[in-house]
Design a protein that fits this description.
This protein is of the alpha/beta class and 283 residues long. It has one domain: Rossmann fold (3-Layer(aba) Sandwich). It has nine helices and nine strands. A nine-stranded mixed beta sheet has the order 1-2-4-3-5-6-7-8-9, sandwiched between helices. Helix 2 packs parallel to helix 7.
Length: 283
């Protein structure tokens, strides 16, 4: 009998500890979209005055793909809402993403913007204002984040990790023509096609948003979530804190002023060579 009591007590303590850890790291939440999908996620409220990251995963992934970065967001005081986009993870009440149409401007991949809309409504209900939310997406999530940013122009920023010009017919370039806020775009240099497409999107965003609004980060290799965790988490956190480089005092030379972002950042206008590669898009 004594052993049973001790066992029950140890199980209760373990369960209490797990519950406390879950509450500290973020709590499971669920909400519905206008077209009936139940979207699941993990929410952590921000510290006072800090931003909240809306985390959108790559195709075939789920909210857990952001586990490592979410821990760093928490450590820095940022809040986050990591989603299972429709058809992924636990958000499968209406089907699995593998059955989604791969083409069409109205396929379920494009309708993931409705998942973002529902998430923004949820955040508003928790006292998080639109101007304090940053969209962060990887792969497919990057394309969805860009398209959603054109619908939420008042957000604090948009971060795109390994975006493509066309992924399941989710097209980010038309959205980047519209969105004029702070933008962070990152891609590894080892994939020439993906790097060129990311550079093109940097150009479009620059021409739309203007000088000082776009940050372009490069990595050695990897893509999507793996690139973020291996190379770019520190840079992205720094961008969340200060999305615009400070202006130089006219009487201070560039050599005398340290770059707080490091060598991986390029916040410059598109080059003539880059513009020549894609003249029809940049017109």
């Amino acid at each position: 009998m004594k052993k049973k009591i001790l066992l029950l007590l140890s199980l209760w303590i373990a369960a209490a500890g797990l519950f406390a850890q879950t509450q500290t790291d973020g709590k499971p939440v669920a909400f519905r979209t206008q077209d009936g999908w139940e979207i699941n996620g993990i929410f952590l409220a921000p510290q006072a005055g800090q931003k909240t990251a809306l985390l959108l995963h790559d195709i075939g992934k789920n909210q857990e793909a952001y586990a490592a970065f979410s821990a760093k967001l928490k450590e820095a005081g940022f809040g986050y809402l990591a989603l299972d986009l429709r058809g992924h993870g636990k958000s499968v009440n209406k089907g699995d993403y593998k059955a989604f149409a791969k083409e069409g401007v109205d396929n379920d991949y494009n309708k993931m913007t409705r998942d973002v809309n529902a998430a923004m409504d949820y955040l508003k209900g928790r006292g998080v204002a639109e101007e304090n939310v940053v969209f962060i997406g990887a792969g497919l999530g990057a394309n969805v984040a860009a398209k959603s940013a054109s619908l939420w122009p008042g957000i604090a920023g948009l971060a795109m990790l390994t975006p493509l010009t066309n992924l399941r017919d989710v097209l980010p370039i038309p959205a980047l023509r519209v969105y004029k806020g702070y933008t962070f775009i990152a891609c590894a240099a080892d994939d020439k096609k993906a790097f060129l497409e990311a550079s093109l999107m940097r150009n479009v965003a620059f021409l739309s948003a203007g000088e000082g609004m776009v940050t372009f980060a490069t990595a050695y290799d990897k893509e999507s979530h793996e690139m973020l965790d291996r190379w770019l988490s520190a840079e992205l956190l720094q961008w969340l804190k200060t999305p615009q480089k400070p202006e130089l005092n006219p009487d201070i030379s560039q050599e005398e002023t340290p770059d707080p972002y490091g060598e991986s950042y390029e916040n410059v206008a598109p080059s003539a060579t880059e513009e020549a590669l894609v003249p029809s898009v940049l017109e």
